Amino acid sequence: MLIIFDLDGTLFQAKPVMLRAAKRLLNEAGVAEPDEKRMLETAPKGAASLLHAFIGDVPDGAANRYVELMREAIAECGDLFPGVRDMLKKLAHDGHELVVCSNSPVMYINLVLESTGAAEWISRYCSAEAYASKAELVGALAKGKTPAVVVGDTHGDIEAAHANGLPAIAAMYGYGNKQMLAAADGFAHSADDLGLLITSLATNN
């Protein structure tokens, strides 16, 4: 079975990393105590959006510096959600094809997978940046592959699955919420739940 995973909020605990890198960038720009909620709203959009939101100015080299700080933060505190490592290992051992489909840049995806050791079980990873939408990327990944399932923690992940006629499993332990993920076909409250749902789905196809 082809299993298409979202990355942040599904496999990887991105918030601690994002907050650490964003806070350091803002501290360097003179913002001593940046608001955490505001950082989380702007940090995923990149250094320019983050700095513009807090100081209204974007110094030269800010984007490169943010990448450096993200690398540092991933190495220092980046980790998978509890149980994800064992789940990936078992699914790969059982013969499933595991791929990552993320809105994040390829550099970031690669860094996360290598740093956490998840790259050992992920056969392929792609960024939706080069596609019109995540749904288009999911369609490209799933073409000619049956059965397949999408696992994610946002409404966009569920939509991307359904747009391609695929079932979607919601990672309820991630950063989404029940209302956002209500349209999912299955709900996993832990990595163990997720592994069981995928195994059940594979058995029934």
The SSE order reads EHHHHHEHEHEHEEH
Provide the helix percentage: 40-55%
Rg measurement, Å = 17 Å
**Could you list the spans in which at least 5 consecutive residues all have pLDDT below 50?**
none
| Overall pLDDT level | 92
How many individual helices? 9
| Number of structural units classed as domains | 2
**Structural class determined from secondary elements:** alpha/beta
CATH topology of the largest domain: Rossmann fold
The CATH architecture of the largest domain comes to: 3-Layer(aba) Sandwich
Going by CATH, the homologous superfamily of the largest domain would be HAD superfamily/HAD-like
Strand content: 5-15%
Placed side by side, the strands forming the largest sheet appear as 3-2-1-4-5-6
Strand tally is 6
Largest sheet: 6 strands, parallel
Quote the distance from N terminus to C terminus: 9 Å
Which CATH first-tier class of the largest domain would you pick? Alpha Beta
Q: What does the overall shape look like?
A: elongated
Task: Kindly list the characteristics that best describe this protein.
205 residues, alpha/beta, Rossmann fold, 2 domains, 6-stranded parallel beta sheet
